[in-house]
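Objective 1b: paired records.
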Amino acid sequence: LAPLSGGESFAWDVSLDRLTFSPVFSIRISTRLSLGFSINLNYLRMDRLHPLADGDGSAHFQYFENMSGLAIGGTMGALYRFDDRLRLGVMVKLPFSTSLNGFATAAGIGQAGETVQSDGERTITWPMVAGIGIAVRPNDRLIVTADLVYTGWHVLEHIPVTYRDPTWVPLAALSELPLKWEDRLDLKIGFEFRLSSVLSLRGGFYTERSAAPEHQLNILLPTVSCKALTFGVGFEQGDLGIDFAVEIIDGNKRQHGVTDKRHSPA
């Protein structure tokens, strides 16, 4: 990656992680209609280790950032049973915004009075997800499902940063993460085959298109389109249910050449 940083070698390691805990509540309104709700408790963390260019791109220095934060979101869903053979479900996962707080260091910039470390804050907006699904039971052993899922990725226009040290203000524009992602609509299909009264086999297939258009690929937060196969098994005995699932994901290769050094991902 040295060509991205003026021929100099720097360390690169970037991650954006989210851990969600979701207690779920459901209520049966009638024999046909059920409603469900979940409270999504999210922990987000961003770590960035990469070179950062100065204003005119003539010099680079090593940049490190560690920021994290908590956010609360929610999910609502409804299931309607037309009869024993046909069910329809809808789901909406609400968007949420959160502030990530932490610090950043930039070894090599402490020359014109700048300090090498500053506390900082990033703002991230997570998109709304909405879906509609159908389940058909052609016989007592088999269920076939299909889902159409919309994700409003357009809210991730960028991930801005604010530094608390006044001498770091000029670095904010350099270390902002521009994304300009686009909304996506994905189709998912699956099945469940009941082997016995307690054991079921499951499988599925889905595609997921990358939210980042080709001209907006960014090495700091790359995304790929993919196809996936899913396999699972379920055990049910009385009020106890245990499920196990595996995903096999095949991501597509993507390539984007940097032609303007002023907008280099470095």
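Objective 1b, second protein:
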Amino acid sequence: NATIIMQILQSTIPSLQALSREGEYGRNKITSYSRMLSVPLAALQAYGILSFLQAQDAANGIVAYTTPFSFEKYESLTMILALTTGSVVLMWLGELITEKGIGNGISFIIFAGIVSRIPEAITSFFTSPDWLELFALGMVGLLIIFVIIFVQEGQRRIPIQYANRVRGHRIYQGGSTFLPLRVNMAGVIPIIFAISILMFPAQIAQYFTQSNVGWVKDVSHGVVNWLSTTGPLYLSLYFLLTFAFAFFYTFIVFKPDETANNLRKAGGFIPGIRPGAPTEEYLRRVALRITVAGAFFVASVAVLPMVIAALPLFKNLSNAGVGVGLGGTSILIVVSVVVETMKQLEAQLMMRSYEGFIR
């Protein structure tokens, strides 16, 4: 979340935008800012988790938690500190994996957290197995994974032509290449945004469900019921917010004006399109068209597992927990990490082969 926030701030704060263009030094500084921002975010989320656990079982008390600043009992501060420290340690481990391994350290840790729940769910299923339901869920899961890979790897390749350049007494031959625009440039970020916005009012309302004021208690229960994760209102808002945030984040990551300006400076142009403003308009129009498909895809993947889990055919499997690893965000993260790791392994093997050939 800290990394996502820093990416958004780079597009809105000129000083951070200038810092991001200063090469490795700028990237290291922004990474340091992200680390510092992670600590208060982790502490805030720790407070939210403890409040949620306390609200789940107010009578028996899952955790001995009162308020974060209850100095009569230091348990609350200790738990917040422990959860925050654990988050920082995980961040450090992820960076070590990235540095000493093949990259994607944080993604590997999230991947492990998702996959580790699957064996327990399978064990629960085998206590009372229903093979027809398992086969149907497996086919649906494979279909979803296939569609994710198909769309995630989809690109619109815009041809780029470079003119001949003269430098001194030398003439540099122009060439042709392409500019790849991914169908889903936003990744899982729109889903994270949508979940955060939808969970916030329900979390706030949860605190007031035990209020002594009648109308406050009724409104709080109404908000919690309306924003239930299995309700039609929640699913509709989830789909619409994910669709909207996909457009928002795509045009933060991809800037047609900067891309067109860089092409013009490098002597490149799109065949049939004049450099400058026409190129910028063309890139914006193409990005808008492919983002419609990408946004619809991300929103559908986010909502579809919840819709499938609500069907009568999969009720028993959902109760057994077999579908626990098939949430929209979970599927995207797992598939993306696996595909990206395979690409990096292939690149490492190819590089080692070239090194051996040169030697």
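The two ends are 44 Å apart (CA to CA). The beta strands are 155-162, 165-167, 170-172, 176-182, 268-269.
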